[in-house]
Structure formats: structure tokens, C-alpha cells
Known about the structure:
Elements: H1 11-21, H2 31-40, E1 54-58, E2 63-67, H3 68-78, H4 87-94, H5 96-126, E3 136-140, H6 146-152, E4 158-163, H7 178-191, H8 193-198, H9 203-209, H10 218-228, E5 232-239, H11 243-249, E6 262-269, E7 275-282, H12 287-290, H13 296-301, E8 306-310, H14 323-332, E9 335-338, H15 345-350, E10 353-359, H16 374-382, E11 403-409
Parallel strand pairs: 3-4, 3-8, 4-7, 8-9
Antiparallel strand pairs: 1-2, 5-6, 6-7, 9-11, 10-11
Helix pairs in contact: 1-9, 3-10, 5-6, 5-7
Amino acid sequence: MKIRSLSFVLHATVVDRLMTAGHVFLMRYGLLFFSVIGLILSPIYCAQAQSPSLSAVKSPSSVINVDQRATAVAQIMAGVVPVAGDPVIDAWVASEEWKKHKEAMQSQWKPVKMRLDAIEKWRDQEVKIKDVSNRSLIYPFSGPDFINAWSLFPEHSQYLFFSLENPGVLPDLHKMNAMEFDALLKDVRNAFTEIFQRNYFITSYMGKQLTTPYLKGSVPIIVTMMALEGLRIAKIEPIDLFPELSRSYEEPRAKRPPKLLRGMKVTFLNAANKSHELSYFSLDATDKALRYYPDFLRFIGNHQPASGLIKSASYLLHDNQFSKTREMMLADVDQLVEDDTGIPYRFLKSANWNIKLYGKYHKPISPMEWGYQPQLDRAYHEAKGIDTLPFPFGYHWRGQESGLLLANRTHSH
């Protein structure tokens, strides 16, 4: 979710009007030492001086440590029963507030899971990528949308998200009282309303939904989605890509970027105990603002081979204010799934990408008429036998009115 103007924040107006019209510490020095260290440091609660409960899970290549507390917090928010053993977590599970939350989340998750099943079935039939487990997924303007990334690219080893919304921190259930816990659960349900119903987030809403006293940032939503998908959390840790820049921008007289770059890495395990990493970055990605972090897109693009995902992106990559992100995606991604709000069709066509169309093309809803693509419209009209897209993808989410482009580069670079 995301914006046309000089700053991501102005996207709020765009989508509001659209609505109107339609990441413990891991050192292997011995079990005793590991246990002591594990009780002292936790990447999730380092700022809160909390001590997670860790358990080891063996993978084919290494020992992966599940952070039981972080996993339990994610499961609590998801309405999924966590492993018993933590007295505080067990008490919350037994509370009436959580029982009601569990029922509400699970009832809403059922139709969403059906939608994701349709995405996965389509993916298995249409998205053919070699050496998928060695690839990264780049998802610009992602917000906390993990479920679509996971449904479309579940075998990728790394996921790189960047968006406007702050990473945030997990809520501390061990310091909450009953009233605060109930408020957190309501905030979680509220934050999931649009993604559950429409299959996208609304930036203007997230500005409020992800800045409450109890629910802060995208990472709590991401790990909640992981819990809904049956995944477990191993680490959550902050990332500072450019520490020298960070220190310089903290100087009193420094000329700072409009939004400071913040990052978090989530290491998580799938059902087969295979580990994946999701790195989430919050920044202003306009060309002008990226001058403060000139190596950011190079860092993202260096994660090759890479696939790309762009959806419900407010036509940002149509705008020359985001030309650097568009150029990075065209140069460094070789497989792309997007809707019409992503890289304009004409750029893909002129760069000799192989493109397959799905579903339907509709002109953008007011006030985003400027995102209309006559070349894409003509391509849909001239193509024969375009397959229906059996799931909502983008702003035309009602019925089977969505469109999607599956593209791959036919040349090397």
C-alpha cells in the first residue's frame, strides 16, 4: 500500500477517496552457556529486557532455535492456541477476552484461507521458477502483507519488504493487564479488516491501526500472519544497513531525511523446519528521499536471483518520483507477479519481458485515473483466451474482476 506524491503519506488521500468510490542471539559455545545467554538477550524484547524461552529444532543443515515467547505472542494475536508452559501466556489463553478473539479471528480466517488456497493452486499451475529455494522475493510498497508473498512464493529463502509503515515491536503480554490485553486484541482485529476482506491494506487506515498504544508497526502484523500460516518465529532483530549514516543523522544540526530508515529481520520456520528470513524496511522511497540512503536499492537488488511482487501499490511505479525503484526492479528481478498498479506494461514490453495476462483490466478508479494504461488495455483486448483470475488481486477485488501480469525477463544482464 502506498502513494503517488513526493511522500508516501499523501497516499492516504488517494486510498480514502478510492474507498469512497469503490525479526536470541545465537552462539554455539555449549548448552549451558547458550541457556544463560538465551535468558539474558532476546531480539524481540531486547529493548524491554525480557527473556524468551527457547527450544531447539533440528533442520537438515543446522540447529534452529524457536523463540517460544515470540511465537506464542504471534499465536495469541492470531487466535491460535500456543504451546502451554508459560504461566502468563496460559492465563491469557484461558481468559474470556482471548476466547472471543480466537473465535473471531478463526471465523474470518476460514474464507481468507480459501482465497489463499486458490492463489496457491494458481501458483502451482502458472508460476514456474527454477532453483526457487535459492531465491529472494523483493516486495516494494508491501506494508505488512506477508500472506500474499507467502502464498505466491513459499519456497524463497529471503523476503525483502520495504514500505512506509514503521517496523514496530511485539507487544509485551507479560506486562499487560486485562484491559490492555483486551484493547490489543481489538486493535489486531481492526488491523486485519481490510486485508481479510479486500486482500490489501489501506495506507491511511494503517497510519492509525498500527500506531495504537498496544499495537505498533508492521512486524506484529507480519508475525501474526506467520502464526495463521502455521509458521514459528526463531528471531526478530533490528537491522541498521548504514550505521555511519544513522549516527550522522542523529547529530543535532544534521540534515535528516524526511523519514529515517528503520529495519527488522524476522527469521522463521516452516512446517518442515526450514528457515526463511524476512527483512522489513521502513523509509520514504521517493527518488528525492533515497538520496539520503543512496545504497539502499543497491542492497535490495543485490539479493539475486530475485522474484518480484507488486500489488495494490497506488500506481507509484508509474510516477517518475519512484523511477529508481522501478529501474531496480527491472534490472534485478527476473520473475514478476504484479497487478496494474506495478511496473507499467510499456516498460516491461519495451525491455522484452515475456508477459502473460490473467483476469481483466479495468481503468483505475478515481482519483487515480492517471494510472490508466492504454497499451495494457489494448493488450487485454487483443489477447485471446485470457484465463480468469480465481482470486482478488488489487483494487478491483469484488467478484472475479481482478487482473494480474506474470512476467519474466527473456534476456540476461
